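ARCHIVE CARD
Drawer: 12
Card no.: 0347
Subject: one protein chain, sequence and derived structure
Cross-reference: see card 0346
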Amino acid sequence: MGDLLRHAKENKILYAIRGSIAGSMVTYLIGITNINSIEYKIPFERFLNPYRPSPPDIDMDFADNRRDEMIEYAKQKYGADKVAQIGTFGTMMARGSVKDVARSLGYEYSIGDRLSKMILSARKVCR
């Protein structure tokens, strides 16, 4: 991971670190992020928890218009058979969608809420 970030920095490719690791003092000290968790009072004690089932992961995002360069760099450095892209898809339920559309159109919350309640839930329809 450090290698990918170094390559991005050297080539002026914008990147962001997100997820639970972003507030870790370790990521700040080794230069992965520029967020000083102590200065901003970000709790990071979850990384010191011995009962945590697995270590936190580090999510990296690269600028959309330069992502292909990062993928090509990783393929050349580590081999095409070692590089993969992972995509995730989320679904938005009908009620939530109606509320979001109403809000984005500038309607009061009560309008979107009332309209969303008119939509039968999947459980009621299937009975």
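Annotation on reverse: The helical segments are 2-10, 25-29, 67-78, 94-104, 109-117, 122-126. The beta strands are 15-18, 59-62.
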